[in-house]
Amino acid sequence: MKIxxxxxxxxxxxxxxxxxxxxxxxxxxxxxxxxxxxxxxxGIERITGNKPIFEQIDLRDKAAVHSFFKxxxxxxxxxxxxxxxxxxxxxxxxxxxxxxxxxxxxxxxxELQQKPEANFIFSSSCTVYGQAEVMPIAETTPIQPAMSxxxxxxQIGEEIITDVTKxxxxxxxxxxxxxxxxxxxxxxxxxxxxxxxxxxxxxITQTGMGLRKALSVYGxxxxxxxxxxxxDYIHVVDLAKAHVIALQRLIDKKNxxxxxxxxxxxxxxxxxxxxxxxxxxxxxxxxVYNIVERREGDVTSAYANTDKANTVLGWKTVSTLEExxxxxxxxxxxxxxxx
Length: 339
Ligand code: WQD
Hints:
Layout: E1 2-6, H1 11-22, E2 26-31, H2 40-48, E3 53-56, H3 62-71, E4 75-80, H4 87-92, H5 94-112, E5 118-125, H6 149-166, E6 170-177, E7 179-181, H7 200-208, E8 215-218, E9 230-231, E10 233-235, H8 236-251, E11 259-264, E12 270-271, H9 272-283, E13 289-292, E14 301-302, H10 307-313, H11 321-338
Parallel strand pairs: 1-2, 1-4, 2-3, 4-5, 5-6, 6-11, 7-10, 8-13, 9-14
Antiparallel strand pairs: 9-12
Helix pairs in contact: 1-2, 1-8, 3-5, 5-6, 7-9, 7-11, 9-11
The structure holds UDP-4-deoxy-4-formamido-beta-L-arabinopyranose.
């Protein structure tokens, strides 16, 4: 059975392609290479011995999306990662985000609703919860107004999919990720941020390699265990495995509703300082960091209630924060050794 993975050369997409191939799915990757490298295909092949079919398509091109689904008419499911995802950039360039993240989703759904049945997995984010009142965050936690155009595109995307499943043969699962980190244990694929990393962990590992002078810790005056923000850092391989389980659930028609939602996290919150200490432990070196002012838009704390994913999907994370940091560090060292 062919599975289409949009954004399949990206960070979470590439790790999901590996896990799909491990379960003997035939994978067709769509990527426009705007935030990924075609060499990721070779990394995937070195892990699984199997290079996925690759189509370089920009999903904003409606005609190209239509031709793709005419060419591949034996698709058992679509996992949709392709989207712009930098919170800060989305504030500066909202229309880029609304066009890229919404138009591409609409064009894919328009193709899928022509089919007798379709299975669709959507890459969503805990961002939709904003600053939730109660921790841990469950799927029933109220959605707050988006804190950025990026977060809004995830909320709008979820609403579009909800509406379409009501009037079509599309079955969908929305996966709300917490903070994906780490790299494949083979060190063949990992996170490849372009330019200065916005996210914490790649900034830490680049600082550890001396690429960045120091990490700026955005505030230590939050009402948390040590004053720094708390997040739920989930190993990207654990996250990838959840996508295969969710897809199989739809293929096997085990879904309870045409639309299901799952939070994907470890269920444990870690502060920025705890992440730094985990890095120092696995790398054996001190990290240079300064405490600076808070970053606009940061929520104090966000970590998942994982009961639903654990009981309904039968999925739970297995990697610890230290294991995830160790894999991120090993990956950073390998990437830098090649440059
Ligand atoms: C984590 C913590 C920062 C960088 C974002 C998106 C979310 C998802 C993951 C796509 C915060 C602190 C960070 C730094 C720091 N992306 N930090 N210094 O903001 O929780 O989530 O990325 O799906 O949708 O919103 O992740 O890694 O940017 O920040 O102190 O240089 O680390 O303040 O507390 P975030 P992050």
